[in-house]
Amino acid sequence: MSFEMNKRLAAKRAPLPTKANIDPVTAGIIRGAMETICFEAATHLGRAASSPIINQSNERNAGTIDAHGRLAGSSIGTPHLTFVSQLTVRYGLENLEEFDWGPGDVFLGNDPDYGGGHLPDYNVYGPVYDDNGELLLIQALQAHQGDTGGKDPGGFTLEATDIFTEGLAIPCLKLIHRGEKRRDVIKLVERNNRFPSFHGDLAAMISGVQLSVKLLEDLVRKWGADVIKAAINYNIDHTEKRFREEVARWPDGSYEATVLIDHDTLGTKDVKVHVNCIVKGDQLTVDLTGCDDRPELVGVWNTFGNSRSYVMSQLSASIDPSIVKNEGLFNAVEIIIPENTIAQPGPNKPAALGSFHPACEITEAVCVALSNVVPERAQPQVYKIGMPNAVIGLDKSGQMWLDQGVDARSMDVSAVQGIDGWGSCPAALGNLLLSEVEDAEPRVPIINISREMTIDSGGAGQWRGQPGSLNTKKVLEPTTAMAWMVSATHPISGMCGGDDGSPYSNRFEVGTEREYQVGLSVHAQLPAGAVIAYQHGGGAGFGPALLRDPEAVKDDVLDEKVSIGAAREKYGVVFTGSLEEYDLAVDVTATDALRQKMKAAKEAKAA
């Protein structure tokens, strides 16, 4: 059963055996070297890969894992990938002899039931041995693939009821044996992908791992195996110690939150994510008991590895950012994920869409709960998009092309205490670079008409959420388009009295008599010339809107982020003058009077 395997893979691992003593400076130098090597591996992949989802979007991450399966180092990348790759490696380590591990080997895994995230996230990894033949480290390189060989291009099947519908599931597969390609195996993996660029992506992942393995071997030779192991032990223990010190300063108690998903892909409404964050001394427990367990749900099954990772993505943002991200974070926290729920489904459940939802709601719920404890760090590390508009067609040679809809946009950029939402993407997307017009249009038959922020779409608050953008594009050839729409009823949550962000919406065949809004999910055939308009949700506000500096509201109006009407209705700010004459000014007396009236009305309603 996968439940038993999940327990084994997530269990706390012992320190590496070593007789060496190490000082903090040396341990820090070695940690920095590992992080640099991870950065080199991820950069190599980004530059060498063939498909734009990797070489343009940077949806990849590298991690160094020790021989006991502990995360020892990582690169800057997509946060949730940082905390999931070690479980796939741990499955390989459990079968080290059966899979005949040795120097020069490179493996591949992506199976959600064997430690993986979802099928598109391929984890390629290779072992690092010292000159005496002792296994010390494993270098992992994880990246999202454009296809998985399943029923639908891209691996996202809206009605999937099992993992096999979504594509090829790989628990652990050796691609390179003792430095030599297993050409039959590589051909098999390449054959189960629709896109000709995949062979270049796979080759880039393999070579990125081989490069970083060589660099790690050099590091081991410089310092010696015992010192390397001592440094890893020290750094993991130090991270755990610092995390526990943070938690010890939090008030003891149970902090609960519930976040809802609009519906699953077939329309079952209000899918529930519940979390209870329990603080007792220096021990933090995150309990997901209460999450939805309705067996009839479709499309909202997250994997155990992803649920665990998304919890940690939010927790690591809730503590001092100087605390190093490694296995010590997991050692400091107990994470309870109940079986047969959307956070840990039974074997063979589909998981592709679960990496959107409920994964993001898990993170959001942790943030809402901890906003009662550490409000100064309460910003959801999430993206509330249900699924981008995946647009698919065939070129003249019969090769399939795919626009995954990961366009540059403004969405879900929430405020945090003291800072308005800024930029265009939530922190959850890390170093992801979304598709630019100049890159996308030469590759696929699509014209981007506009990408504009929408006024009044940022959540109101003492600090304001960033508005979302309306992205409009036209397809130039007949295409298939897929989308799953959520976060219209339940957009991103406001924090500490701030308003929620604005809802998402999506319209197909805009400007024709056939125009319609996507209310649930769609797998549509679009004619040449069809226009799609995707309204991305704005970020949420932080703190009560009536506490916002009226001059800041005036600046928002001048910047066309807030309308004059919303300034009055949401923020209680009254102006003299006009935008047309550019003599807008805050009427201080009228604003004070209106705010007092609005505050009294709100208190009366609450009573």
Report what the structure shows.
This protein is α+β, with helices and mostly antiparallel strands and 607 residues long. It folds into three domains: 239 residues, no CATH class; 158 residues, no CATH class; 61 residues, no CATH class. Helices cover 31% and strands 20% of the residues. The protein has a seven-stranded antiparallel β-sheet with strand order 2-1-5-4-3-6-7. The longest helix is centred in the middle third of the chain and has 26 residues. The radius of gyration is 25 Å and the shape is globular. It starts with a helix and ends with a helix. The mean pLDDT is 94.
Q: Structural class of the helix and strand makeup?
A: alpha+beta
Poorly predicted spans: none
Relative strand content: 15-25%
Quote the average pLDDT.
94
Largest sheet: 7 strands, antiparallel
Taking the alpha carbons of the first and last residues, their distance comes to 51 Å
Strand element count: 22
Helix content: 25-40%
Which outline best applies? globular
Strand order of the largest sheet: 2-1-5-4-3-6-7
Total domain units:
3
Number of helices: 16
CA radius of gyration is: 25 Å
